[in-house]
Amino acid sequence: MIFRFDLKRLVISLIIPLAVGGLSAFVTRGDMDVYKTVERPPLSPPSVVFPIVWTVLYILMGISLYLIWNSGDIYVDKKNAYIFFGIQLFLNFIWSPVFFTARQYLPAFLILVALWLCVLAMIINFAKISRPAALWQIPYLIWLTIAGYLNIGIYLLNR
């Protein structure tokens, strides 16, 4: 695999997920307080943890995207990696308005399940191109698992 550092690609790769995350936060800005008002399952982290974790995860997404985009291997098809990256980013974006603004906890959970599966598919496709790009997404999958537990717990406790 040929790899050359490209600052422009790195910046673009970081901006894409950070912008989507920022836009999602902007869309749901006043509604995120719902987390403090609903009954939560045991081991729920405080709300201050979420923006920190999500910022780190968006940065890791950007680094992984950069590693895929900047991979110089012309014999590797990157189409599926890009498709799954885009789908997971879309699902990631829509989860917040469904959960926080619409307060539709069960549909939000179903989106989260689809997101988890899509991130797994993304990791598998990333691994074909760049093992480090795939490994950088493991924390994301772990966090989505935690988010799934919280989401279904909130649904069950607040019906």
Please tell me about this protein's structure:
- With 159 residues, the protein is mainly α.
- The protein has a single domain, classed as Up-down Bundle (Ferritin).
- It has helices at 7-27, 34-37, 49-69, 79-101, 105-129, 131-135, 138-157.
- The radius of gyration is 16 Å and the shape is elongated.
What's the layout of helices and strands?
Blueprint: H1 7-27, H2 34-37, H3 49-69, H4 79-101, H5 105-129, H6 131-135, H7 138-157
Helix pairs in contact: 1-3, 1-4, 4-5, 5-7
* Secondary-structure element pattern, one letter each: HHHHHHH
CATH class: Mainly Alpha
Helix content: over 70%
Shape: elongated
Strand content: under 5%
Rounded to the nearest angstrom, the radius of gyration is 16 Å
CATH topology: Ferritin
**Number of domain modules:** 1
Helical stretch tally: 7
How would you describe this structure in keywords?
159 residues; mainly alpha; 7 helices; 75% helix
In short:
This protein has about 160 residues and is mainly α. The chain has seven helices and no strands.
